[in-house]
Amino acid sequence: xxxxxxxxxxxxxxxxxxxxxxxxxxxxxxxxxxxxxxxxxxxxxxxxxxxxxxxxxxxxxxxxxxxxxxxxxxx
Length: 75
Ligand SMILES: [Zn+2]
Ligand SMILES: [Zn+2]
Hints:
Elements: E1 7-10, E2 23-26, E3 31-35, E4 41-43, E5 48-50, E6 54-57, E7 61-62, E8 67-68, H1 69-72
Antiparallel strand pairs: 1-6, 2-3, 4-5, 7-8
The structure holds zinc ion (ZN) (2 copies).
One zinc ion binds at residues 11, 13-14, 16, 43, 45-46.
């Protein structure tokens, strides 16, 4: 069996994966239904709101921009 590659949302500014965003959550079981990808996200690493975030696989590939995350990573 092969699991699909796990991807996490990361900040291209500092690389943090602890970005917070506005999401719709089903109260019954507290699962995230959808969120507004175009709204600003809060990055606790940069301590500012970031507009652009990257969905990065465990291999370090950004699915959002279809390139290695190190290229997205402005630093
Ligand atoms: Zn950041
Ligand atoms: Zn990216």
